[in-house]
Design goal:
mainly alpha, elongated
Length: 140
C-alpha cells in the first residue's frame, strides 16, 4: 500500500478524524449559540472549514486541482508550486481567526496552537517532501 497516494486507509482515517472534529465544532457552535455567546459564528466557521478539509481528504481534491491547472495553463511546473499558495491561504485564515483565538482561555489557545501547528507542519511538510521526492521521479 502506498500511503502517499490518495484513496487508501490512512487517507480515509484522516478524513474521518477531520469529520469528527467538524461535528464537535458544530456541537460547540450550537452550545455557544444557546448561551448567547457572541463568538458562536467563529465555531460554525471552523466546523465548515473542517468539513471542507474532510471532504478534500476523502476525495483527493487537493491533488486534482494542481493537475487541472497544469493542463489548463499548459504549465506542468504548477503542480510542484501549490504548497506555497496553500501556505498563503493558511496565513490568511490565521489572520482572520487571530482575534477569536486570542479571546480563548490561555489553556485552550495553547492547545489550539499546538494541534494546529502539528497538523499544518505535517500536511505542508509531507506535501513538500512528496513534491520534491516523488514528483521529480515520476513526473507531474
Amino acid at each position: 500500500m502506498n500511503v502517499g497516494a490518495e484513496h487508501n486507509i490512512p487517507a480515509w482515517y484522516s478524513s474521518a478524524l477531520l469529520l469528527l472534529c467538524a461535528i464537535l465544532l458544530a456541537v460547540t457552535d450550537q452550545a455557544k449559540r444557546a448561551l448567547g455567546d457572541r463568538y458562536s459564528l467563529w465555531w460554525a466557521g471552523l466546523a465548515l472549514e473542517f468539513t471542507v478539509l474532510s471532504l478534500d481528504e476523502a476525495t483527493g481534491l487537493h491533488e486534482k486541482i494542481p493537475r487541472l491547472l497544469a493542463r489548463l495553463l499548459d504549465d506542468p511546473g504548477i503542480v510542484r508550486s501549490c504548497t506555497g499558495p496553500a501556505a498563503l491561504l493558511l496565513v490568511a485564515l490565521l489572520a482572520v481567526y487571530a482575534p477569536f483565538l486570542l479571546r480563548l482561555p490561555a489553556h485552550a489557545r495553547h492547545l489550539f496552537a499546538l494541534s494546529g501547528g502539528i497538523y499544518v507542519a505535517g500536511v505542508l511538510g509531507v506535501e513538500y517532501l512528496g513534491q520534491r521526492l516523488i514528483l521529480p521521479a515520476h513526473g507531474p
